[in-house]
């Protein structure tokens, strides 16, 4: 059971690296096209960069916000031997909703759809924590 939770965590890590690569490619493309200069990277003042550069940077930052609670919950579940089918399903729902969120954010960026995928991921992490606490204290 634990291996499926570890695999979900690994997929979230892969998503973070994929977004980092996309962000880097967009930034270097903007520099190559002279939209921004290499000097702009010294202070990360990328005001002149296009929206696609800012969106990729923002999505990369997103990978270190809510996913932190996912990773902590996953590690806590592993440490406390509180994994089970419900937790595994919630973990995979989190990762899938984060992938969908990134695809939307980095693609057409439809805000309403992006919001719903973000909300689903937040609810999954909350449910994971509730599941862990319930299993540890009530089971």
UniProtKB/TrEMBL annotation:
Membrane-crossing residue ranges in chain numbering: 6-24, 84-104, 116-138
Subcellular location: Membrane
Gene Ontology CC terms, in alphabetical order: membrane
Organism from which the protein derives: Pseudoalteromonas porphyrae
KW Ribosomal protein (keyword) present: no
Name recorded for this polypeptide: MAPEG family protein
Pfam families per record: MAPEG
Key words of the record: Membrane, Transmembrane, Transmembrane helix
Superkingdom, natural source: Bacteria
């Amino acid at each position: 059971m634990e291996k499926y939770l570890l695999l979900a965590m690994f997929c979230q890590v892969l998503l973070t690296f994929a977004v980092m690569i996309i962000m880097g490619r967009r930034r270097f493309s903007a520099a190559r096209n002279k939209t921004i200069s290499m000097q702009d990277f010294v202070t990360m003042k990328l005001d002149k960069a296009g929206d696609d550069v800012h969106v990729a940077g923002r999505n990369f930052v997103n990978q270190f916000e809510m996913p932190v609670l996912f990773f902590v919950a996953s590690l806590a579940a592993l440490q406390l031997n509180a994994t089970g089918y419900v937790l595994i399903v919630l973990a995979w729902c989190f990762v899938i909703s984060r992938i969908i969120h990134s695809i939307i954010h980095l693609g057409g960026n439809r805000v309403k759809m992006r919001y719903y995928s973000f909300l689903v991921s937040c609810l999954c992490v909350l449910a994971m924590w509730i599941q862990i606490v319930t299993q540890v204290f009530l089971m």
